[in-house]
Specification:
Blueprint lengths: L2 H30 L3 H13 L9 H19 L7 H20 L3
Helix pairs in contact: 1-2, 3-4
Amino acid sequence: MSTPDLQAAAEKLRLARQIEANRLQALRRAVQSGNPHAAKRLKLFRLTGFAYPNPDRRASCLRHLNRAKVELAELEACTSDPDLLLIAYVQGRIQLYQQLGDLARG
């Protein structure tokens, strides 16, 4: 992936993380206002964490890289008909997270 493409991918991840952070803030406000469903959703969010790595933090990129490698191993271990498009997508994520991790700061 070229540098402009990598920068564009990092910017998309930043935007996605910002949207996710805004949703988390709204969820916290809903919990404070007494919404019982929001409390369950907040608990689930805390268990799963952010779906996108912080492209500016090496640890975040490497954590998501390791998750993607586990996903890939599970997909490749399927004895039934493996989804080749999904495997290619996960391989692309692995490559992206590795490159972002190489460029990110501590």
